[in-house]
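Hi support team,

I've been running sequence recovery on a batch of backbones for a student project. Most finish fine, but this one hangs at about 90% for roughly twenty minutes before it completes. I'm not sure whether the input is malformed or the queue is just slow. I've pasted the structure tokens below so you can try to reproduce it. Let me know if you need the job ID as well.

Thanks,
M.K.
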């Protein structure tokens, strides 16, 4: 039989073991907390160091920046890959100077009626195609024939008639450059029926009429009624449709062209025939300049054909969603000095210069004590550009030259992209 003392000693031993386990567990948890705090502090310091290295581009600490660059390059392709995607386009090298085009390469395509030897040339339509080299993007800027240029004698001429003038091609190029802010690297001039041959060879897809239209052949005045659902596939009617010859209102036809082109590109680009094979049969007409004129040219029919093929292939290779279809912005005129009828007077002048208007009846405004009131304080006229797009800003500067307005300023905002505020200097 156990003695009472032995029983008490056994109980004391049994109760002490849990207390030792609790103390041991507490020490382990305390040590683990210290380790976690140390790891967290090191992680914070490391993140701070990497962030500073990325922002300041500190050697050995800029791993984040290098990693981000590596990921972007893998997603976009290396610079060599991007360059290789477009480096085989012949037109990226000027055929006369040998200079390689980079950044932007632009071609002004002009369809005209008449020929160079017997009849006056009148422009029917113009499109400025710009390839953003190495970026897989492009834009097509439709140039209005209603716009005005000045010939060598300083006389005002519509662009549609500018090819009749001495050095008309140079005047056309410089006017388009001023209007768009885009350097014109090439000029391609093509008579309408030769353009029809090119469109036919490239197998442009048909268009289904969304509504009843009366298509006008501007060469002979003949008209043709087309009904909803009717499909047109012949090249001459396709061209006339995209020139919007069914729209008789000045400027309305121009903006219809942009909208129709934008709708047509998704079906056109994937179905267009391969340009080199499609156009090879037209080479026989090239040496005599019967098909078109390319400036600057290569000096040979086969060379010019290779350049045209490369231009069309560059367009065909782009996804439709990567091509931005542009038109000149409409312009609003506001009365900034209170002289009655001044807005209409300036608007009429702009219309005579081939500028599309969105309105001329408004007054300049300012906010006083939270209320919008007329602002007739403008002594000098001002052009305000509400869009930061470089093309829109270029057009605003072009208007400044046309109207002899020196102040053209940028003020981000909604509404019309370009606003002319007529001051007292225009009232006389």
């Amino acid at each position: 039989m156990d003695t009472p003392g032995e029983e008490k000693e056994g109980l004391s031993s049994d109760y002490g073991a849990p207390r030792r386990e609790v103390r041991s567990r507490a020490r382990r948890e305390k040590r683990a907390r210290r380790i976690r705090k140390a790891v967290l502090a090191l992680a914070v310091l490391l993140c701070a160091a990497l962030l500073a290295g990325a922002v300041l581009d500190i050697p050995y600490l800029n791993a984040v920046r290098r990693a981000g660059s590596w990921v972007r390059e893998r997603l976009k392709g290396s610079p060599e890959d991007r360059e290789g995607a477009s480096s085989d386009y012949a037109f990226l090298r000027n055929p006369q100077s040998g200079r390689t085009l980079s950044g932007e390469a632009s071609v002004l395509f002009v369809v005209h009626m008449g020929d160079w030897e017997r009849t006056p040339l009148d422009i029917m339509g113009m499109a400025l195609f710009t390839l953003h080299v190495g970026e897989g993007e492009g834009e097509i800027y439709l140039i209005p024939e209603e716009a005005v240029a000045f010939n060598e004698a300083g006389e005002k001429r519509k662009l549609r008639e500018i090819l009749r003038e001495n050095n008309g091609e140079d005047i056309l190029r410089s006017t388009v450059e001023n209007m768009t802010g885009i350097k014109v690297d090439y000029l391609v001039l093509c008579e309408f029926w030769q353009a029809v041959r090119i469109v036919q060879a490239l197998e442009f897809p048909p268009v289904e009429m969304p509504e009843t239209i009366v298509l006008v052949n501007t060469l002979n005045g003949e008209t043709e009624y087309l009904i909803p659902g009717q499909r047109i596939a012949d090249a001459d009617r396709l061209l006339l449709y995209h020139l919007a010859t069914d729209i008789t209102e000045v400027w309305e036809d121009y903006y219809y062209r942009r909208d129709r082109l934008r709708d047509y590109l998704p079906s056109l680009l994937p179905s267009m025939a391969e340009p080199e094979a499609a156009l090879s049969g037209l080479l026989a007409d090239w040496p005599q300049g019967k098909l078109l004129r390319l400036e600057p040219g290569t000096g040979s029919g086969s060379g010019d054909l290779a350049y045209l093929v490369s231009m069309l292939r560059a367009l065909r290779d782009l996804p439709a969603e990567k091509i931005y279809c542009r038109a000149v912005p409409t312009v609003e005129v506001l009365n900034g000095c209170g002289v009655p009828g001044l807005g209409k007077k300036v608007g009429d002048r702009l219309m005579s210069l081939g500028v599309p208007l969105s309105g001329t009846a408004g007054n300049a405004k300012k906010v006083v004590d939270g209320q919008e009131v007329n602002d007739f304080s403008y002594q000098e006229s001002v052009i305000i550009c509400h869009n930061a797009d470089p093309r829109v800003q270029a057009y605003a500067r072009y208007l400044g030259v046309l109207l002899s307005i020196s102040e053209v300023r940028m003020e981000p905002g909604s509404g019309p992209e370009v606003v002319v505020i007529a001051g007292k200097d225009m009232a006389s």
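--
Follow-up from support: It reproduced on our side and the slowdown came from queue contention, not your input. Confidence is low (pLDDT under 50) at residues 5-13, 55-62, 68-86. No action needed from you.
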